[in-house]
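Hi F.,

I've been meaning to write this up properly since the lab meeting, where we talked about keeping a consistent format for the predictions we share between groups. The idea is simple: the sequence comes first, exactly as it goes in, then the C-alpha cells exactly as they come out, then a line or two of notes. No screenshots and no reformatting. I'm using this chain as the first example so we have something concrete to point to.
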Amino acid sequence: MRILVVEDEAKLAQFIELELKYEGYEVMVANDGLSGLSTARESQPDLIILDWMLPGISGVEICQRLRSTGDKVPVILLTAKDEVGDRVKGLDAGADDYMIKPFSIEELLARVRAALRRTQEQETNVLQFSDLKLNRSSREVFRGTRRIELTAKEFDLLEYLLAHPRQVLTRDQILERVWGYDFMGDSNIIEVYVRYLRLKLEAENETRLIQTVRGVGYVVRE
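Output, unedited:
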C-alpha cells in the first residue's frame, strides 16, 4: 500500500513517514500544496494524509480538486483547527477522516488501517475491466458513464465473466456457475445471453469485450 503524506512541518512529516514505513507501507512525502496535488495525481496513492494549512494551496482545496475529477482516494485531514465548523468544512470538501493536532501516532495508524480496510471492502464489490464496471452490491453496470440495465441472469453471466478477466471459461463452467448443475435446458442458452449482453454493452459502438473462443467458450478481453 502506497501512502502520500502532504505536510509542511518537516519534522512531523519525517516522523509520520518513519512510522508508516515501520508498519510496512510505501511512503511518499510532499511539503507544499502544489507538489502534493501533483504527486497525488501522478502516483495514485492508496491513501493520503493531508495537512490543512500548506504553502501554495490548502489541504482542503487539494481534497476538493481531487474529488472534482472523480478521485476517490481515502484522505485523512490533519489540522490544528478544532472547531466543529472546521471539521464540517473538511469533511464536506471530501475528506474521509479528520485528526486534530497534536495527535497520537497510534491513533493515526489505526485510522489509516481502518480507511484502507474500508477501501478494500468496497473494491471487492466492484468488478471492472476497461471502461466496463459492475457493482455487486447495488447490481449496477456502467459502460463509461452510461448506465446499462440488465436482467438478473444477464447480470449473473456478466459478473462471472468479469470475475475472471482474460481467462477463457468453457461452456460447461459457465452453465454450472450461472445456471446451476441441474440445468436441463437448451445448451445454446449461453450464446443467447452473450448476444443480449453484447447488444447492451455495445449499444453506442463501444469496443467488444466479451470474446468468443471457438469450440471452447468465452473470455473478457480487449
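Notes:
The mean pLDDT is 91.
The CA atoms of residues 113 and 205 lie 42 Å apart.

If this format works for you, I'll send the rest the same way.

G.
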